[in-house]
Amino acid sequence: PRHNGRLGMSATPQRIAVVGCGVSGASTIIQLVLRSQKFAKPTKIYAIERQNAFWRGVAFTTTAEHHLLNITCDKMSLFEDQPTHLQDWITRQQQLGKLDKKYNTPEHMYLPRWAFGSYIEDTVAETLSSCPAGTVEKIQGEVVSIADIDGNPTVHLADGAALPVDKVVLTVGNLAPADIPFSGSEQFYSSSQRYIKNCWKHFDKFDVIPPDSRVCIIGTRLSAIDSLLTLHHKNHSGLIHVVSRYGLWAKENYPTIAPTYKVFIQDHVADKLPTEPQQVKQDGSGFGGLKTEYIANLLEEEWKSVKEKGEYPWQSVVDSVRPVENLMWLCLSTEERNVFHQKWKDRFEIHRHRLAPGQFSVVPKMEAAGKIVNHTGGMLGLRHTDVNDPTSPIMVTAGTDEFEVDWVVNCTGPQLDYRKTADCLVSHLRDSKAIHPEQSGIAMLVDWCTHQVLDADLNPSKVLYSAGPPVKGTKWESIAIRDIRKQAELVATQLVPE
Length: 498
Hints:
The protein is an alpha/beta fold. The chain has helices spanning 23-38, 85-95, 113-128, 185-191, 222-233, 265-269, 292-309, 314-319, 322-331, 334-352, 362-368, 424-431, 481-495; strands at 14-19, 43-49, 136-140, 143-147, 154-157, 162-164, 167-170, 195-196, 215-218, 240-244, 372-376, 379-384, 394-398, 401-405, 407-410, 452-454, 460-466. It is built from 13 helices and 17 strands. Helix 1 (23-38) runs parallel beside helix 3 and helix 1 (23-38) crosses helix 13 (481-495). The longest helix is centred in the C-terminal third of the chain and has 19 residues, at 334-352.
């Protein structure tokens, strides 16, 4: 066995590559280091990140004060067993004069994202300061393939580097938004200099958009609101066209800490859920005959009942589903998951993933001032008025409307379909049958209990593990900090046992 002694002895370290070092990767590395110290297991960790943004990830690199977390800071600790860890950090930063004292008060429980990014950085730094030098090696680069997964796995990077490892943890986070396909789309996307594919990765491009430019924002969810807020704070005066399929805007969160509502749905679905998650095969056949329509109707009826009584906010009712949400998702067949995508997903998502209070208020104000024009029906086409000039105005076709703009911003959210994504590593793993993309188009499958990645034949890998957004195929709720920290600890428990 590779681990045969204490840190001071000559045991060969277990080599673990953590691919993707945003918040999921940072949480995983923290847990790996803590367990390797606690149980005296020598471990060498390669922290590999394609962007120059270790630990923060794309979402927390912003420096804008108006880009806020959408969860109250009492729920954002990186440690399950230390619920006030973030709040304690906030207090220290306030004492040092580095953070406004209004935060972590009842009126300001939503922290700026840049501050949360600093919290992650500080927590990683503190964790690494107590372990032997070289335990964690940071490598900036893109992993393009993993060779000989079943034998002597080697991680290959785009620059030609090759790292022999024992285990790999895929914490690649959210993939970039997918370009919307249409006739001639490939030429437009490859040449246009007025198309922002990923607003979170390229918020700096908003600095070069002239204030009087006409802008088209594709989407009405969280990223779209962040983009509108950014333009608003830059005193943008040009007309903004907003395109979406149904015109459903993101909703706001409860003003302070929302009261907890009973897990009402559990009594209604208990007889349809497994006693052990491992009973579910994950082959698309489902379990217990659970129906999407049944769940949606239960939630809608409860919502109406609570609204009539006025005792709880609607946000509490939606959040009450969380304790059983992943298990219900696990039990849905591929057919039922497709029903969810087609009929309920958009409505559910705008109520489940919400804005910080007050952030939506800019939208009706801009609409009233005639600065926003809404278009429903989806995006059908984009083309430059001069096909030979990638900086010329862009003609947009959306639904039955056609209009001209100077810039287009894609705010459709991350690409989730691992069956179709062109991401280099994911497509390599897919084509080599090392992963099993979820068949309704939501990331990939992992073993519920161990987070071992399932291959094309649904066999758990002996090398690949995952946490965070990539595991949404098995566990729908995998992007909130409370979910990521649990998953990171679970993976670390598998890789560094007692």
